[in-house]
């Protein structure tokens, strides 16, 4: 029984590492990706893989430890867990959309850029997590804290939330936001990474701990969620900045009348009027 569950877990982990980069693929296919993946990405993926394999034997022990009566009756821990859960979902989406809207209204190019790309990373990461949850159908800790090896292929699509543990969606959201914010701000203020990165990634890690405290995820769920979210955030930001003027940015970050080859004009759609920095200035004759 143990060897069978080990094989299922190994296959799940392998699929995570295979799917997460592919599901963060480019939005625009006009240009070829420019250094979208590097050897550092391989090192990062290997680190998450090794960490997940290493922590997996502790899944049951960690779950049972966090469910002790003394921990569960601690009001500070209860409120802290609720707060971090809310910040991750739906808070991360609300914050991202609000930043985008505020940036557009205030004509602040950087704020709009950060809000758009951060929100995109969230949706890509959560989409990846949803597929994996459905495929591997892992039972959540509250089903049985002593059995972290309860997987069933495709059960996550057929059953309710009890069997959608792998990986942690809240953790994906936290790390996708952390990676996107850190990557974006480091382009503007390179020295800021030393304090923005610890704050963002530290907060994301606390989201994962909160999910474990609430008995919704195993430790390995959280670590894989961190990997998926980190890759989603990093790849989205890298793609958009290596493909300036891609379709999504043109559509969401600019809105104006653009001349057409036949002498007419066409509208580039935008939900909110574009800031001057994003309005195309080229003309065609």
What characteristics describe this protein?
285 residues; mainly alpha; Vanadium-containing Chloroperoxidase, domain 1; two-stranded antiparallel sheet; 11 helices; disordered C terminus
Helix content: 55-70%
How would a textbook summarize the main sheet? 2 strands, antiparallel
Mean pLDDT: 83
Radius of gyration: 21 Å
Class from helix and strand fractions: mainly alpha
Q: What does this 3D model show about the protein?
A:
The protein has 11 helices and 2 strands. It has a single domain (2-25, 40-242), classed as Up-down Bundle (Vanadium-containing Chloroperoxidase, domain 1). The protein has 285 residues and is mostly helical. A hairpin with a 5-residue loop joins strand 1 (257-259) and strand 2.
Q: What's the gist of this structure?
A:
The protein has helices spanning 2-22, 39-55, 59-66, 69-72, 75-105, 109-136, 155-158, 169-188, 193-213, 219-242, 247-253; strands at residues 257-259, 265-267.
How are the secondary structure elements laid out?
Layout: H1 2-22, H2 39-55, H3 59-66, H4 69-72, H5 75-105, H6 109-136, H7 155-158, H8 169-188, H9 193-213, H10 219-242, H11 247-253, E1 257-259, E2 265-267
Antiparallel strand pairs: 1-2
Helix pairs in contact: 1-2, 1-6, 1-10, 2-10, 5-6, 5-8, 5-9, 6-8, 6-10, 8-9, 8-10, 9-10
């Amino acid at each position: 029984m143990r060897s069978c569950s080990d094989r299922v877990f190994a296959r799940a982990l392998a699929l995570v590492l295979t799917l997460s980069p592919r599901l963060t693929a480019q939005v625009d296919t006009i240009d070829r990706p420019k250094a979208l993946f590097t050897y550092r990405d391989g090192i990062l993926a290997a680190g998450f893989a090794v960490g997940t394999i290493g922590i997996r034997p502790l899944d049951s022990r960690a779950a049972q430890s966090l469910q002790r009566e003394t921990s569960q009756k601690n009001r500070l821990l209860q409120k802290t867990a609720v707060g971090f859960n809310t910040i991750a979902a739906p808070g991360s989406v609300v914050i991202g959309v609000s930043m985008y809207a505020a940036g557009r209204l205030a004509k602040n190019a950087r704020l709009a850029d950060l809000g758009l790309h951060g929100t995109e990373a969230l949706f890509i990461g959560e989409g990846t997590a949803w597929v994996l949850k459905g495929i591997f159908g892992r039972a959540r800790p509250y089903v049985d804290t002593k059995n972290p090896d309860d997987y069933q292929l495709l059960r996550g699509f057929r059953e309710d939330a009890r069997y959608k543990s792998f990986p942690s969606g809240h953790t994906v959201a936290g790390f996708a936001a952390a990676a996107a914010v850190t990557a974006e701000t480091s382009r503007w203020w390179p020295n800021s990474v030393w304090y923005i990165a610890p704050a963002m990634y530290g907060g994301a890690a606390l989201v994962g701990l909160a999910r474990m405290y609430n008995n919704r995820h195993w430790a390995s769920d959280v670590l894989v969620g961190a990997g998926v979210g980190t890759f989603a955030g990093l790849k989205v930001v890298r793609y958009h900045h290596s493909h300036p003027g891609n379709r999504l940015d043109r559509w969401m970050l600019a809105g104006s009348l653009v001349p057409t080859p036949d002498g007419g004009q066409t509208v580039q759609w935008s939900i909110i009027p574009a800031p001057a920095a994003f309005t195309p200035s080229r003309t065609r004759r």
